Amino acid sequence: MNGSNVTHNSAAFDSTVGIQAETVHNSNVYFVHPDASPQEKYRVGIRLLEDGISSRAREMITDSIAHGNDNAEVRFHWVLAMLSTRAYHDLNAEEIQQLHRASRLVRNYAEGEWKDALRITFELLAMLSTADGDTGLVLKRLRALPARQREGILRHLDLVLTGGLKDSLWAENRERAETDRFGNDRVHRIWAYFEPDPIGPRALPPRPSTAAVAQAAFRVRAAMFVIGGASLWITALVSDPTEAVIELLMALGAGLTATHFGRQWCFRDHRPNVVTEPHIPHMRDPASTRDGFTERVRHSFHHYFAIRAPHGFGPDEWLGYSIHVRNSLATEIALLYRESRISVERVNWLIRYLAEDARDRHNSGTLFGPRRQNRNAVMAKALSVFALGTLGITVLSVLGTVASGGGASGIPLAVLAVVGMAWSGYTATSSWLVARREENRLVRETQEYHERLSTRQIAYENWKSFLDTTRPSEQEMENWLTCDKTLFIDEALRHYQLTWRDLITHTILVTPARPYKRGRAKRGPWRYSRYSFRLFLVTQDGVREISSETDFTDAKRGNEQRSNYRFEALSSVQVTESTHASYELELILTNGPARNIRVKDADAHQLAPDENAQEVAEINLNAAGFIHTFRLLEGIAADGKGWIERNNPNNLPSFDTAD
């Protein structure tokens, strides 16, 4: 499967469309055992920071330091985690004090690239309180750092660095975003992130055998046949021993011949065609299984059979030609996977495989292969019929022998024996055939079951391996999103002809844009196939707001909207928390209608048993930039221009980094 096979929906602007698909990947990348060492907690903290989960990264790295893992490298990443996705005014008094204490610890660490990076980070923070300070020396030292440390500083201090300092760094930041935006084959791999983890293969087992019941009936009826036959021939022996012996030998020969060839004829004639649609044990009336899941399964079969038609067939023609096979397979899958928490998306890999298998069997001529009735089967049928006719004539001859013996009293007994033999022989033969057919069916269906399960297991492993190889990592997804945001901000600055020197601060809110697919790693943030970027640029003259929807697969944007308003026009900002933890941000302007921004959809039903709903909600709000955005807009709504004076970078305290 490639990107072109992914199903897409579309909707007009302002349409309301539900979630198309969502998945949670079972990943242990963020799992930390309670007894983990400080070093292990630090490593997990680094992964969290790189993947954009700064709130949990702060917790992990702080915990690691508290348990003795403190050096320049650890402290450097702790500072980045403290400032990631936050402006300086988002820090509380205790966090600011912690940063100042950390700045005084720099001199105690061993010399090296990590100490240089940590020192430069604090020097950059110290320059925030210098309006027109000389930034050349610090920027030169920043650019001289190894790429890992330099890019970490630029990325995580994005909301802290402002003014001329950021102007000097912005060009290379933009160039790096343009270079990395489509790196690592983004366009052809993102679809795999939103593909659900496939559920394991299943196949319907054989029906339980009913041979035991038939065998028990056969033994009783065979005994009755033997008793009737013995009575008949004893009567015949009394009447004429010579003829009775000859007739007995003929009857035995005809009976054995009919049994031998009749078995071949019967089993060949009733053997099912194994190359048609698979056998469905306990298949119910399809109309009785048409629940929501079954309908989605049938729709998925219809979709994949249509796009995987054999050469020479149109989609509609193939759907009509394969309707019986398709319905049988759909019923099988619906019976196998009808569970309350299994979505059809997790079974689509199997439906797709079955559609491809049906196409391949048609191409090889085995989809509707005819039953093979060879000449041997015809001969067996003819000999069996002849032997049965001979047996019937012989029995009539025995009756004649009894009658010719002159024993009138023996005729009713002989007739009764013949009737009993006919009934018990017929029913015993039927029971025997049923038992043998059941035994053969069970062997055959067991073999077919294991073959189906084996081929499906191979298809499952191939698909899962392909997904695991193709699916982007959390770090790749976060890096691509960062590049998109960077270039969106750059485009907005150029549109308004603003530089970073013109800005007091800025914030960007990243929310889902419907319709979307979404996925996340366990204990990680939701990531979406479609985003809405909403940027707020705060200048001395007021707030400029620009929003745009982005298709995360190819980074194409559309539905762009812009608005400008003075500080006093923003009258209030409210947050509405709906059932099961969905969030909406409401902006109320004095000169226009209130605007509702859906920040996060509910996800309580997607939480694993060991996940905390409040923690996951905080992670998602932090990843969306909601906390910083809300504090900024709330402050402006409350204080107007007074907020600017209270958060002027010139009023920030300096950091002590001297050795």
Please describe the topology of this protein.
Layout: E1 21-25, H1 38-50, H2 54-66, H3 72-83, H4 93-105, H5 113-126, H6 136-144, H7 147-156, H8 163-180, H9 190-193, H10 211-239, H11 241-270, H12 292-307, H13 315-321, H14 323-337, H15 348-363, H16 375-404, H17 410-470, H18 474-496, E2 503-512, E3 517-521, E4 527-528, E5 530-539, E6 542-551, E7 556-565, E8 570-578, E9 582-589, E10 595-600, H19 613-623, H20 626-639, H21 642-646
Parallel strand pairs: 1-3
Antiparallel strand pairs: 2-5, 3-4, 5-6, 6-7, 8-9, 9-10
Main features:
single chain; 4-stranded antiparallel β-sheet; alpha+beta; elongated; 21 helices; 11% strand; 55% helix
Task: Offer a quick outline of the entry.
This protein has 659 residues and is α+β, with helices and mostly antiparallel strands. The chain has three domains: 353 residues, no CATH class; 150 residues, no CATH class; 78 residues, no CATH class.
Plain-language structure description:
The chain has a four-stranded antiparallel beta sheet. Strand 3 (517-521) and strand 4 form a beta hairpin. It is of the alpha+beta class and 659 residues long. The protein folds into three domains: 21-195 and 474-651, no CATH class; 211-271 and 381-469, no CATH class; 286-363, no CATH class. The protein has helices spanning 38-50, 54-66, 72-83, 93-105, 113-126, 136-144, 147-156, 163-180, 190-193, 211-239, 241-270, 292-307, 315-321, 323-337, 348-363, 375-404, 410-470, 474-496, 613-623, 626-639, 642-646; strands spanning 21-25, 503-512, 517-521, 527-528, 530-539, 542-551, 556-565, 570-578, 582-589, 595-600. Residues 1-20, 271-278 and 281-289 have low confidence and may be disordered.
